[in-house]
Design a protein that fits this description.
Blueprint (H helix, E strand, L loop, with lengths): L11 H18 L10 H12 L1
Length: 52
């Protein structure tokens, strides 16, 4: 990934890829204290199972 001397990404596609990576980490791998050390994805999946 190319970055300018200021550290900014060089185009919109690279920025979108960075945001996608961050969202995947935040929602699927990062444990959240407010969710009892669970990921948002695991909480969502459990809610879906209980709703059916």
């Amino acid at each position: 990934m190319r970055k300018s001397s200021s550290g900014a990404t060089s185009n919109v596609a690279e920025l979108e890829a960075l945001v996608d990576d961050w969202m995947e980490f935040y929602n699927h791998r990062r444990m959240h204290q407010s969710l009892s050390k669970q990921t948002p994805w695991s909480v969502y999946q459990e809610a879906q199972r209980q709703a059916t």
